[in-house]
């Protein structure tokens, strides 16, 4: 079995497994997907599969042999990673030229020299053109992975020279399965705090990286606090709640723009659940932990009021994102009490 350490993405794994087995890899691949979607793991797994000491046995890469371990811990001399440095926002042509020179030196401990560009969409046009040279005239045994979030930032000429692999959105079931077999923290959390664990799966929103980053109890506690705050803010919009409660809820919202938007986006998710539950159709919960919890909130509202609040919150997000004065944005939320 090849590349089983990569979560989901079955078609991609099948496609890559066969080219790895037959040593017929393209000289470059574009791996497109958001941060945390597994692009890095896929690239390293492919490299490990090429080099694994047990590649004639069952699971490839085995992740246990010395070579696999060195590749996954980035201690393998023939694997180099290029990413945006420090406070810079782009990767410039000079950095690419240095890498290009290096590509012509022979590999020191394996068949392939591998270059992983972690932020290929941050390469300047000049840098991309410099890279294009080695894509147009591939160097023997050089393998390039271009990781990007936005494929439109890559030159058409680059895109036409390297097959594009788009990372899949992973279901909560797949993320659960992955965490249970690969993460000690994931197993512990599921055992000790099933509710917190479900919260992680929900908020991971299709990304293993995001799920992993949430696996410490502090961040889970933070999310739980936010969950409670969002529930009480939402209830304050109900026609049955005194207006003073709404004013007080609104005044305690974060003053910082980014935090404010984050809370409002949660409110939108909660509203989507509430609206869907009113429609009584089958739906997947985005915010609430259970249908019962959702109904406890939604029964305080009519559909009309839910839609009004939805519009209001959407407008607040738009204005906050457009740099409007935060006091004005907050005030907007408390002006529409029917
Ligand atoms: Zn191995």
Could you walk me through the main structural features you see in this protein, from its secondary elements to its overall organization?
There is one protein chain. By secondary structure, the protein is of the alpha/beta class. The protein has two domains: 10-166, Rossmann fold (3-Layer(aba) Sandwich), CATH 3.40.50.300; 216-333, no CATH class. It contains 16 helices and five strands. The chain has helices at 10-21, 39-51, 66-72, 93-103, 125-136, 156-159, 172-182, 184-192, 194-204, 208-213, 217-236, 243-251, 257-279, 291-298, 303-321, 326-333, and strands at residues 28-32, 79-82, 113-117, 142-148, 164-166. The chain has a five-stranded parallel sheet, with helices on one face. Helix 4 (93-103) links the parallel strand 2 and strand 3. It is elongated, with a radius of gyration of 24 Å. The mean pLDDT is 91. It binds zinc ion (ZN). The site of zinc ion (ZN) has 8 residues, from helix 3.
Largest sheet: 5 strands, parallel
Which CATH first-tier class of the largest domain would you pick? Alpha Beta
Strand coverage percent? 5-15%
Tally of helical runs: 16
Q: What is the CATH architecture annotation of the largest domain?
A: 3-Layer(aba) Sandwich
Which class do the helix and strand fractions yield?
A: alpha/beta
Domain module tally:
2
Radius of gyration: 24 Å
- Shape assignment: elongated
Ligand list? zinc ion
Binned, the helix content reads: 40-55%
- Main-sheet strand order equals 2-3-4-1-5
Could you report the average pLDDT, rounded to the nearest whole number? 91
Order of helices and strands: HEHHEHEHEHEHHHHHHHHHH
The total of beta strands comes to 5
How is the CATH topology of the largest domain named?
Rossmann fold
As residue ranges, the low-confidence spans are: none
Q: What is the CATH H-level superfamily of the largest domain? A: P-loop containing nucleotide triphosphate hydrolases
From the N-terminal CA to the C-terminal CA, the straight-line distance is 61 Å
């Amino acid at each position: 079995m090849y590349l089983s350490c990569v979560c989901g993405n079955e078609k991609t794994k099948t496609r890559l497994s066969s080219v790895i087995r037959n040593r017929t890899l393209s000289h470059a691949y574009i791996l497109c997907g958001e941060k945390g979607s597994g692009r890095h793991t896929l690239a390293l797994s492919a490299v490990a599969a090429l080099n694994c000491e047990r590649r004639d046995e069952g699971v490839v890469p085995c992740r246990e042999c010395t070579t696999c371990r060195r590749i996954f811990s980035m201690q393998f001399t023939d694997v180099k990673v290029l990413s945006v440095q420090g406070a810079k926002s782009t990767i410039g042509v000079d950095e690419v030229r240095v890498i290009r020179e290096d590509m012509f030196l022979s590999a020191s401990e394996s068949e392939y020299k591998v270059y992983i560009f972690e932020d290929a969409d941050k390469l300047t046009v000049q840098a991309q053109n410099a890279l294009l040279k080695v894509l147009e005239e591939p160097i023997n045994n050089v393998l390039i992975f271009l990781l990007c979030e936005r494929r439109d930032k890559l030159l058409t000429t680059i895109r036409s020279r390297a097959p594009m692999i788009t990372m899949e959105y992973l279901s909560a079931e797949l993320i659960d399965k992955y965490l249970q077999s690969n993460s000690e923290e994931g197993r512990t959390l599921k055992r000790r705090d099933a509710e917190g664990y479900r919260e992680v799966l929900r908020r991971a929103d299709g990304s293993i990286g995001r799920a992993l980053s949430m696996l410490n109890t502090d961040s889970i506690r933070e999310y739980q606090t936010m969950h409670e705050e969002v529930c009480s803010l939402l209830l304050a919009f109900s026609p049955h709640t005194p207006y003073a409660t709404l004013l007080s809820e609104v005044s305690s919202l974060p003053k910082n723009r980014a935090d404010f938007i984050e809370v409002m986006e949660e409110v939108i998710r909660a509203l989507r659940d509430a609206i869907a539950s009113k429609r009584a159709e089958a739906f997947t919960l985005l915010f609430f932990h259970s249908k019962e919890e959702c109904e406890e909130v939604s029964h305080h509202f009519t559909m009309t009021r839910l839609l009004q609040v939805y519009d209001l919150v959407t407008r607040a997000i738009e204005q906050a994102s457009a740099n409007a004065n935060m006091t004005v944005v907050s005030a907007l939320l408390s002006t529409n009490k029917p």
